[in-house]
Amino acid sequence: MGQTAGEFVRETKYLDGRITADGRDGWPVQPDRYRLVVARACPWANRTMIVRRLLGLEPVLSMGICGPEHDARSWTFDLDPGEVDPVLGIHWLREAFEKAVPGYDRGVTVPAIVDIPSGAVVTADFPHITLDMEQEWTAYHRPGAPDLYPAPLRDEIEEVSGHVYRDVNNGVYRCGFASSQAAYDEAYARLFARLDWLEQRLADRRYLVGDTITEADVRLWTTLARFDAVYQGHFKCNRNKLAEMPVLWAYARDLFQTPGFGDTIDFVQTKQHYYRVHTSLNPSKIVPDGPDLSGWLTPHGRAALGGRPFGDGTPPGPVQPTEVVPVANTALAA
Ligand SMILES: N[C@@H](CCC(=O)N[C@@H](CS)C(=O)NCC(=O)O)C(=O)O
Q1: Protein residue with least CA distance to atom 10, ligand 1
Q2: Residue-wise pLDDT tens digits, 231-276
Q3: Is 173 among the catalytic positions?
Q4: Phi and psi at residue 212, in whole multiples of 5°?
Q5: How far is CA 140 from the centre of its chain?
Q6: Atom number, ligand 1, closest to the C-alpha of residue 12
Q7: CATH 3.40.30.10 location in the chain
Q8: Ligand 1 pocket check for 108: Cβ under 6 Å
């Protein structure tokens, strides 16, 4: 496909070390050796937070949380005491990228996994981070951890996710950051055509692929979770709200109410990030007060479709006390 003038093109060349069970890339899976760095706002980081929770990796892979805003230089650990990450001992996430590559000159992005002994980023390659948690960290999965990437379903998961990535996950950014009317029109048309397709696909099946939660659901859901709060307004994805698509809205609520999904979401930080960081789109930096979030907690009725959320496994336990989202920043505050 040719490029449209003014089209948003995502930079995807980041540090991409692989943490593996056999350590073939020099980064063996080891408890307490690595720190996952995220920001609550970021949909790509949100995937890693959800998968870490579903698989029960919290005791072996700790998590540092950057504040919602960053400048052109870097995300920072401004939510921590003294504005320093208590494990890595740094304020700027950039420091960990520069430890890995002196003079590092590309994006300082989340999610990232840092090697704690050296303080250097191993990977900021979000697609492999969740796949490696699923396939390489198996020795440390909790009892009852679900199989999020079942071998017989991988082709279908990747096929569906390919459409979802292009048209929805990255599609909302292609709407928001288009710099020509034609590029925006094209991204908008693709986004809503794909949401219509998903509305149909999910009408008689509880999950995207197979009858359990998989990596495909995690990937789609982090965009849906931000849709009405951010993308609908800020990125001009406004044919309709998610809450006006009955099937997708019920699907999104079903997962929101599933342990490991909704409990990772901080709506306040998410809105602050998008509306204050993207000053080219929102020069006043005013953060909207809406929308009303109480709908996220209403019954979804999706259990009637069958499906087994965790397959032969079980839901994850409670959120680690240090990682609980303050009630004021959740749908419960509505
Ligand atoms: N850019 C990465 C995904 C991660 C990403 O874009 N994260 C955003 C937050 S949602 C970020 O860290 N942006 C900071 C920056 O680019 O300076 C990719 O597409 O491979």
Answers
A1: 42
A2: 999 999 999 999 999 999 999 999 999 999 999 999 999 999 999 9
A3: yes
A4: -130, 170
A5: 22
A6: 20
A7: 34-140
A8: yes
For atom 20 of ligand 1, the residue with the nearest CA is 12
Please state, in angstroms and rounded to a whole number, the distance separating the CA atoms of residues 112 and 223: 19
Domain 153-333: give its CATH code.
Answer: 1.20.1050.10
Rounded distance from Cα 110 to ligand 1 centre (Å): 6
At residue 16, what are phi and psi to the nearest 5 degrees? -140, 40
CATH number for the domain running over 34-140: 3.40.30.10
The finding on whether 42 has its CB within 6 A of some atom of ligand 1 is: yes
State how far the Cα of 172 lies from the Cα of 149, in Å rounded to an integer. 25
Known active-site residue 104: no
Average pLDDT over all residues of the chain? 96
Tens of pLDDT, residue by residue over 165-184, are 999 999 999 999 999 999 99
pLDDT digits (tens, 9 = 90+) for 195-232: 999 999 999 999 999 999 999 999 999 999 999 999 99
195 within ligand 1 shell (Cβ under 6 A):
no
Q: Which helix (H) or strand (E) holds 44?
A: helix 43-55
Q: Is 109 in the pocket of ligand 1 (CB under 6 A)?
A: yes
